[in-house]
UniProtKB/TrEMBL annotation:
InterPro entries xref list: Aldolase_TIM, FAD-bd, FAD/NAD-bd_sf, OxRdtase_FMN_N, YqjM-like
Boundaries of every NADH:flavin oxidoreductase/NADH oxidase N-terminal domain copy: 389-725
Domain FAD-binding: 131-325
Region (Disordered): 737-763
EC number: 1.6.99.1
UniProt organism field: Streptomyces platensis
Keyword Nucleotidyltransferase found: no
Single annotated GO MF: NADPH dehydrogenase activity
Protein name: Bifunctional salicylyl-CoA 5-hydroxylase/oxidoreductase
UniProt keyword annotation of Repeat present: no
Domain of life according to the entry: Bacteria
Keyword set, alphabetical order: Oxidoreductase
Length: 763
């Protein structure tokens, strides 16, 4: 087998080493356009997991690297003159030049041909002459560009500028430092990569990062490498102990996230940054490339031919990379929005920074450094032994006993297909109220027959509806005292007149369809869903009155909270998104116009909703589609509703257009709630794949949200909140067990699984 490797970075070199070790008969050539001693950047951080993979695959490389590593456990966070330290993290780093030297030596020992200062031939040419072409040619991959039609790359450039520099001494920890300059916020990420030896002081990587507008205001767009290093050294003179910084072909760069729909094309395969990138703030670039090399070599060994090996490699690595990229994007976005967190209390700020990627959590950090987490909780006023999720929270005159919300979930189970909630809703909502959540929300309750999504959706537009809902609220207030129950009012708009979800989601009814209305005459799925009628101003007045009547009915029915549904592409959401609102009158155009009707409805409902009862609004903070709602739009929407009297903003995303591309993953929507809360200071409800009590504790304690709404976990376990309390050993007022259930408040015993320990050992 003849193998061509384009790019002599760690990933390409290590792939060559592994393939040659597995089969010495392979003829392997590596092309690297730079000299052997040339490299960009300084230090490389590798995890214990990655090192374990290297140790098993090539003990000789592992031993050589092990001798070079600098190890440390602490992270220092410096902000407004105060340094907080969190321990127990475990890092290992070495110089990039040393890493490359180890791999160069190993390649030569194995008989791999290294061609330095040589541009690789085009991948298409190599593919004709070699059995396998590994394109490890980095973030600016020429291979990926040349075959973009096959790989289908998506490149996203982000909002900060950063520069890689070095200091000629070794920090004794990973250091994050925040500087508030006249131009704006500047952050430093620094870590040691070379140990002090004798009189030498070692070395550290120093990355300085700031938003684009700060970078331009400081004039750094006009500075060369030396001037940039001097400017950064001056800003962080205390951290650097007055010492200078040096560059290495260093320049200011805007980070680009690289995602490819495919990683292979014929016998050419992408590896490392050519296939995917992850922001440096989670230290994963070299790690991912090395792990790619390990997986690729293993798949080539295990599969009968190259085509199946490349398919297996991508199948194995893609979920791991996607998870890492989600964490990296969360971390990147946190630093982009850093200015909104500066006024947090010191320990909360530090905890927020440490948990920003969602990979380090409250429980995980408590295992690493229990004293640090205890200090965070103490600063937040958390009573000893009380998990943050069980702190009370006040909305208007309503006090919720904990931070857990049963999220609105459409059940499509109205008793008579005429909007009336029946026994199902009594049992469904009643069970979840008994399950310990602070607030239980109904599904979207429709304000008119034509406002239903399906015939199975519930309503509040007829007297019998009010009576039936009163039965539910009475049960909650009587049998689950202390639990609040809220109603979500909405209108389906262009997404109505469809089948029950399990009969065909978003598909029109086979018969009996009713006419649809929307801001503009745009069908949800052209050719599938009917084209809605564009609402006239008199019709808008009628709709507004339908919301008012439903709100009055909800108040009489005994609901504690009302939420106005302005998300997910339903009627009011349709006004907010530029993708669904093409009006040219006062209710369209810019965001002010698009907000006009939802705010009119909000004001009309707020006027009749009892003053002491809170009112919230659910929005879609992004459409996950080009040309849709932006992050700035979402903040402006939240600000407008808060100014009109919303007690909290329930921050969801998407479901506005069918061709959306959501970035699914654990807690994937919470950064949008975080941005609104910390930019505006308004209470928010976070939602979106929050799957564990550890997630809830982390998000609340970090100040990213006030309440967490969970849907599927409450379908899996109606008593999710009570079980979360039991699992954490909590038995306080934030999660009281209903009296009939108290005997079940401990985990049931199971059979003993451990064997008796030996009592005596004779030698």
């Amino acid at each position: 087998m003849r193998v061509a490797v384009i790019g002599g970075g760690p990933g390409g070199l290590y792939a060559a080493v592994l393939l040659k070790r597995l089969d010495p008969a392979r003829e392997i050539t590596v092309w690297e356009r730079n000299a052997p001693e040339d490299t960009f950047g300084f230090g490389v951080v590798l995890s214990d997991e990655t090192l374990g993979g290297i140790e098993h695959a090539d003990p000789e490389v592992y031993r050589a690297l092990q001798a070079e590593f600098v190890r440390w456990d602490d992270i220092d966070i410096v902000h407004r003159g105060r340094t907080l330290t969190s321990g127990g993290h475990g890092f290992a780093a070495l110089g990039r030049r040393r890493l490359l030297a180890v791999l160069h030596r190993r390649c030569r020992d194995l008989g791999i041909e290294l061609r330095f200062r040589t541009e690789a031939p085009p991948a298409a040419e190599l593919a004709r002459a070699y059995d396998l072409v590994i394109a490890a040619d980095g973030v600016h991959s020429a291979t990926r560009t040349a075959h973009a039609d096959a790989f289908r790359p998506r490149l996203t450039t982000h909002h900060c500028r950063y520069i890689w520099l070095a200091a000629d001494f070794a920090f004794d920890s990973f250091r994050f430092e925040i500087a508030e300059t006249e131009h704006g916020v500047v952050q430093l990420h620094a870590y040691p990569f070379d140990r002090p030896e004798g009189p030498a002081d070692g070395a550290s990587t120093v990355i300085v990062e700031m938003r684009e507008e700060v970078w331009r205001s400081a004039g750094l767009d006009r500075c060369d490498e030396r001037e940039s290093a001097e400017w950064c050294a001056k800003v962080f003179t205390d951290a650097l102990r007055g010492r200078p910084l040096r560059g290495n072909n260093s320049s200011w760069t805007a980070f680009r996230t690289v995602v490819n729909d495919r990683w292979s094309h014929g016998n050419t395969v992408l590896l490392g940054d050519a296939a995917h990138t992850a922001h440096f703030s989670i230290g994963s670039g070299t790690k991912l490339a090395v792990e790619d090399a390990l997986a690729l070599a293993a798949c080539l060994e295990e599969q009968p031919d190259t085509a199946r090996a490349l398919a297996a490699y991508e199948e194995e690595r893609r979920p791991v990379v996607a998870s890492t990229q989600r964490a990296a994007r969360a971390s990147l976005a946190w630093f982009e929005e850093l200015a909104t967190y500066l006024d947090q209390p010191p320990h909360q700020f530090a905890f927020n920074l440490l948990t920003r990627s969602r990979r380090v959590t409250h429980d995980n950090l408590r295992l690493r450094d229990p004293g640090f987490v205890a200090a965070v909780e103490d600063e937040a006023g958390t009573p000893p032994g009380t998990p943050p999720m069980f702190l009370p929270f006040r909305l208007g005159e309503l006090t919720l006993r904990n931070r857990v919300v049963v999220s609105p979930m459409d059940m499509y189970s109205a008793a008579d297909n005429n909007g009336t909630p029946g026994d199902f809703h009594l049992v469904h909502l009643g069970a979840r109220a008994l399950g310990g959540a602070g607030l239980v929300m109904t599904e979207m309750v429709c304000v008119s027959p034509e406002g239903r999504i399906t015939p199975g959706c519930t309503g509040l537009y007829a007297p019998e509806h009010e009576t039936a809902w009163r039965r539910v609220t009475d049960f909650v207030h009587t049998s689950a005292p202390g639990t609040a129950i809220g109603v979500q009012l909405g209108h389906s708009g262009r997404k109505g007149s469809t089948r029950l979800m399990w009969d065909g989601i978003d598909q029109p009814l086979p018969e009996g369809n009713w006419p649809l209305v929307a801001p503009s005459a745009l069908p949800y799925r052209p050719g599938v869903n009917q084209t809605p009628h564009a609402l006239t101003e008199p019709e808008l007045a009628t709709l507004r009155e339908q919301f008012v009547r439903a709100a009055e009915s909800a108040a009489r029915a005994g609901f504690d909270l009302l939420e106005l549904h302005c998300a997910h592409g339903y009627l009011l959401s349709g006004f907010l998104s530029p993708l669904t609102n093409h009006r040219t009158d006062a209710y369209g155009g810019d965001l002010t116009g698009r907000l006009r009707f939802p705010l009119e409805v909000f004001d009309a409902v707020r006027a009749v909703w009892p003053a002491g009862r809170p009112m919230t609004v659910r929005i879609s903070a992004t459409d996950w589609a080009d040309g849709g709602t932006t992050a700035a739009d979402a903040v402006a929407m939240a600000q407008a509703f808060a100014a009109h009297g919303a007690d909290a903003i329930d921050v969801s995303t998407g479901q506005v257009v069918p061709d959306e591309r959501p970035d699914f993953g654990r807690s994937y929507q919470t950064p949008f709630a975080d941005r609104i809360r910390n930019a505006l200071g308004v209470p928010v409800i976070a939602v979106g794949a929050i799957s564990s009590w550890d997630d809830v504790n982390s998000l609340v304690l970090a100040g990213r949200t006030d309440l967490c709404a969970l849907a599927r976990p409450h379908l899996y376990d109606p008593h999710w909140t009570l079980h979360a309390a039991a699992e954490q050993g909590y038995a306080g007022p934030g999660a009281p067990w209903p009296l009939p259930y108290q005997a079940g408040s401990r985990t049931p015993p199971t059979g003993r699984l451990d064997a008796p320990k030996p009592r005596l050992t004779l030698r």
